[in-house]
């Protein structure tokens, strides 16, 4: 996990949060996001709430990314 986390943080500092965005939200794969949300909520409801909040923020970043590309 450490290499993934380090690469992610390095990309955010090098590129900025919008261009460094990857993952299902960046790809528009909201079905995967919903499945992940359900899995996290089933595991720990309070972390499911946190996941939902981070999802909203990440969707906003993704929207900014699309605007910047146009």
What does this molecule look like?
This protein is mainly alpha-helical and 70 residues long. It is built from four helices and no strands. The chain has a domain at 24-70. It has helices spanning 2-15, 24-27, 30-43, 45-69. The longest helix is centred in the last third of the chain and has 25 residues, at 45-69. It is globular, with a radius of gyration of 13 Å.
| Residue runs with pLDDT of under 50 for 5 or more positions | none
Number of helices: 4
H and E string = HHHH
N/C terminus separation = 34 Å
Biggest sheet, in brief? none
Q: What value does the Rg take, in angstroms?
A: 13 Å
Care to count the β-strands? 0
Structural shape = globular
Q: Structural class of the secondary elements?
A: mainly alpha
Q: Please, what is the average pLDDT?
A: 93
Strand residue content: under 5%
The percent of residues in helical segments reads over 70%
């Amino acid at each position: 996990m450490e290499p993934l986390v380090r690469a992610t943080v390095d990309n955010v500092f090098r590129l900025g949060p919008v261009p460094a965005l990857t993952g299902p939200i960046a790809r528009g794969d909201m079905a995967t996001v919903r499945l992940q949300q359900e899995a996290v909520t089933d595991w720990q409801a309070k972390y499911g709430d946190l996941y939902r909040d981070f999802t909203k923020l990440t969707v906003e970043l993704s929207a900014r990314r699309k605007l910047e590309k146009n």
